[in-house]
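Session log. Operator J.P. requested a structure for one protein chain; no other inputs attached. Running the standard single-chain path with token output.
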Amino acid sequence: MKNTLIIGASPNPMRYAYKAAHMLKAKGHPIVNVGVKKGEVAGVVIEQPVILHENIDTITLYVGEEIQHSYYDYILQTNPKRVIFNPGTENKELELLLKENSIEPVEACTLVLLSTGQY
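Structure written below.
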């Protein structure tokens, strides 16, 4: 199972981050929710990006490029194996930064990866 940190977590059931959190949990992946919204998703409280979590395999992004800048240091300090850029979150600058730090950038959809067994 892959410990997954969701950046852009939202308690709104209409958001893809919400759907991803529930699907990740249903597939047995432990999650950490990070974002600006208050509340919880899939039974996990949404945190501010201040606590650094260890052993994070994957960060999945649900915030656009303009918001990602405030997360750069947090992502690099978390040091995941990969970062998934979901549709609409692509960011060449961050992808380059990740590669320079031996973190794999992946342009994909977390929901599709989970649905097709490729996660």
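Operator note: The mean pLDDT is 97.
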